[in-house]
User: What shape does this take?
Amino acid sequence: MIHFDNVTKVYANQNRPALDHVSVDVDKGEFVFLVGPSGSGKSTFLRLVLKEERPNSGAIHVAGKDLARLSNFKVPHLRRRIGCVFQDFRLLPNKNVYENVAFALEVIGKPRRFIRKVVPEVVELVGLEGKAHRMPDELSGGEQQRVAMARAFVNRPMILLADEPTGNIDPATSIGIMKVLDRINRTGTTVVMATHDAAIVDSMRKRVVELEDGKIVRDQSRGVYGQAY
Amino acid sequence: MRANFIFSEVWIGLRRNLTMTIAVIVTVAIGMALLGIGLMVSSQISGMKDYWADKVEVSVFLCKKNDPFPKCKGSGGVDQEEQAALRAQIEGMEQVEKVEFEDAAKAYENFKVQYASNTVLLAAIQVDDMPESFRVKLKDPDTYGAVIESLEGAAGVSNVVNQKKLLENFFGLMEKIRGFALVIAGFLVIAATLLIGNTVRLSAYNRRRETGIMRLVGASNLYIQLPFVMEGVIAGLIGGVMAAVLLIVTKVFLFDGMQGYLGNSQLTWETVASVISFTMAIGVFICVLASFVTLRRYLRV
Assistant: This one.
């Protein structure tokens, strides 16, 4: 599903590569934790999958497509197959829960009838039934992140990228977030989650890829966060 | 593509930047109106040139009794012999197509028509005050130089007036007005372009959250950019409509008002309509262009 082959990314005006000859394979339906200290290249990895950045060398395949040969014109279509969740939720403050989720479908031109049917289902899936008409500032951090997950998942993406989704959320609430991610993963969606949260990684017992200074130092199925942290 | 989504976005964008939008509309309106006036003056000039081309004549005024003109001082006015000699001289010139004699009575008729509204002047001027003249039509209106030179010194001639010269002065003035309107229109077009650029930039900044999410969920570039471009188009269209109103007012009050002095106005409604559609197209085109160029810089997609 995601295939990195000897990928190196050096940002302009920087000597040290953000990713240094990284090769990794993520299969369809897998759940992968991407761990490592700040600046180890986790976010760069996710940005490369979305083609927000281009690698300096190496090849990236996502959902069977060679990103180097994907024209800019087609990048939006790639992104429709990838859902994204961030630490800071990125909700629209002037829209309620339903509208925030529906926005993701409206802007890719889905018909209104389809939106009316699908959005309530996904709102329920993330555990926000009955809160569809709340505004984001009336929700707790955990609930806001659920809205963001509903928005990321509403178009049934093949891949869900989560960049520290529990970073702004207390540990008790994080468990609920992880349950939703697990539920999404069980529908067959590949999930890649970058995180610092050792407790979560240890409790989930999923594949762990550890990055350090842009290099993969560990790739372990059913792994834990690691001793060093 | 969902039209009402785009339009609600456009409406929000226009409302958030109301002052900038008004500035864009006013600039576009005035710029396009001046451009249109320049074009209308242009068409008026060429129309009038055609109209007058076969009507201009050289008027050779003859001395009458006690004529105050210096060349006639002392003479008792032109006599029959001098008049016949003059006619023969004029008819003998190879540049001349045709000569007509206008006597005082006919000149008075023409005068009465031309100054019908000025009763004071009509009461003061009598038939005897009108000069007699030869109306000389040239084969080529541009060859007046030699004709005038040889007639000006002839006996019994008070003065020679070349209508072409008068018209050329008038056309010169019209051409200056046109040039002035077009230069100012050019500056306003530049101002409008920069204003639109700024408006779009503000709009893009105001909506960076929305556009960020749109990018993330895979909205196409067109879908993301269209609301911004539409903002420019709508501002341009409103400006264009205001310019059209200004042009119609100009046509009715300025060009049709000139009709009394110039015989007829050459500016038809058809011309005004094509000028209006042209300026509107230009206005919208500028807006679209400025929006796209700015978006490429400020809205990463």
